[in-house]
Structure prediction request, 750 residues.
Amino acid sequence: MMRFSTLIKHPAEWMTGAATGNAVVLTSRIRLARNLARHPFPGWAKKVQRREVMETLKPAIENLPCMKDGFSKELEELDSVQKQVLVERHLISREHAARGEGSAAVIARQQTVSIMINEEDHLRMQSILPGQDLHHAYREISGIDDALAAEVEYAFDLRLGYLTTCPTNLGTGMRASAMLHLPALVLSDQIGQVLQAVNKIGLAVRGIFGEGSESLGHLFQISNQSTLGESEESILERLDRVITQVARNELFAREKLVEEDPDMVADKIGRAYGLLRHAWLISSKEALEHVSMLRLGGDLGAFPAGTSRICDELLMDIQPAHLQLHTGKKLSAEERDNIRAEIVRSRLQNLEAPDNRSLQTNGGDSDSSPDLGVL
Amino acid sequence: MMRFSTLIKHPAEWMTGAATGNAVVLTSRIRLARNLARHPFPGWAKKVQRREVMETLKPAIENLPCMKDGFSKELEELDSVQKQVLVERHLISREHAARGEGSAAVIARQQTVSIMINEEDHLRMQSILPGQDLHHAYREISGIDDALAAEVEYAFDLRLGYLTTCPTNLGTGMRASAMLHLPALVLSDQIGQVLQAVNKIGLAVRGIFGEGSESLGHLFQISNQSTLGESEESILERLDRVITQVARNELFAREKLVEEDPDMVADKIGRAYGLLRHAWLISSKEALEHVSMLRLGGDLGAFPAGTSRICDELLMDIQPAHLQLHTGKKLSAEERDNIRAEIVRSRLQNLEAPDNRSLQTNGGDSDSSPDLGVL
Prediction:
């Protein structure tokens, strides 16, 4: 299998694919929760039972075609920085990183598929793809699900569907989500209204970084709340429709901003660029905000194509554990801010100042004012 | 005489001279208050009496050798933007700009000498020089004072000295001041202590911009409070000694900052540079703060020699009336912020990013820790 250092040397494929085409929906992700029949859920299992489950599942997963030359480790084999790096890459959950004996992670070489063993459930399998591509991500993880189902027996009830530790996952065991970049809705103060509309139809929205409702970097995740009483296809279709609509709202808001207050937009983009290029101490929170504006600038034509890719990689690499791994030693908060600023400056050193005189929206459909009612 | 547009086309000589040598004391200024004998003070005078005073003084002043090819206008001949521009250049006072019939301003070509007629007193004459040069500035204005005294009779009392409208100017009628740039004392939180010490020995300290105690751009003016019972020479000597000491404190604080927290200093300078280079909307208050850091960066070797000169000219030119004059039309606050940012960007476009790796203090005397006690 692959070494940790090899895995981490490359950005995940889902991080780099969004550079073209989809400026608003950065990634689409499907996660399935599964458990083995006749084995206690991880929270109730004894160590020996957890280990038994892992020893059944780990080789079965490693043998999947998609896991060829992939990464596979028991969590006990990883140190805390390595685990934190996997969390920052969205490859394992924060909760999983805290688990000990009997838990493992198996990750595909391209980092688009990752499977946690003995997280809250015996199996948490996810597929992440760039852009708005929920159906494709679902097909991918579904194939893996089918392949595993041929090897092991899942805990399944004809009436309830897949059985899970937490009742909120019962049924399909599926959580589908997309990560959206919504700076114009935030800048134009429409975000609250949009999020409320999304909530009202039973979908969940939350900020990506910083947990809770705080939304750093204007990044939001929209996902399904319910997993029961509805088919996977129907859930995905509904979610996909809403995501399309929110993305259209964002593009419309960008168009309005550029039309009505181009100086404000140019100022935000220019300041973000100036600070990222020349700060010597920067927190991850502040960097996130500015990188978000840089990405918007790229989408609006102020920076050359490929800027979003730089942004995506930066977002990943300036996180605390990534920094620690990069420097190979424990860092104080001020050292982190210093090294973060250094990395940001060096990554952006060839990025020319924004061409703010030619701001343009490239995806908005200005004829049809988007209507939140259709959500 | 000189036209307004010609006067304003060039920066004042005292603005550009400080570029070399004196990094902390930007300018030295002497102002003398004088009144004509047997004429009521301007506040009590009738229009016709004010006009009479002006008609006596204006030609006498215009004929002074230092006023050859200078600027001379009655305030009624200037529009409000022009008057405001003169205020922003420290060539006339805010109070003088508000006066009408019978008031005038005569300004030397190099803008180092300017004389207000019928301000609070019949005559307010000032000399401004770059750097720490109070004695030279005094000699200059004193020569003018002597020349005028040969032409007109001053209101003078053998016991009280020169008689003035306000008793705080009685005696010498002299206000001597220096403008100091004290960013390191502010950043290291020592400024309060320094200002208190200066106040305690009977000198006044105030921020330059924004009036009152607010100090924008880390610029402070130190001046004498009392004008009575002490010779000009003794006042100047005391003031000069204090200014020298405060400047040494500032240089010592810079050295400490660079030594103990170079990343913080580099960060402040870098951010200021980044924002000034790339903002599209900037208030004068914010610009002042950043220009102050740019100037500090220049003093510390992060920017090439001559950067302080760019800073000084910027400080002048981004003020509201200067902007208005520059564009030739009335501007809204947002338009001002926009044009200000444009001017700043264009003035700085050839200034390379700060070389923060070679920060150094160039004037501190690190052997002797300065002692506020000697003030």
Summary: Residues 262-358 of chain A form one domain. Chain A has two domains: 1-171, 262-358.
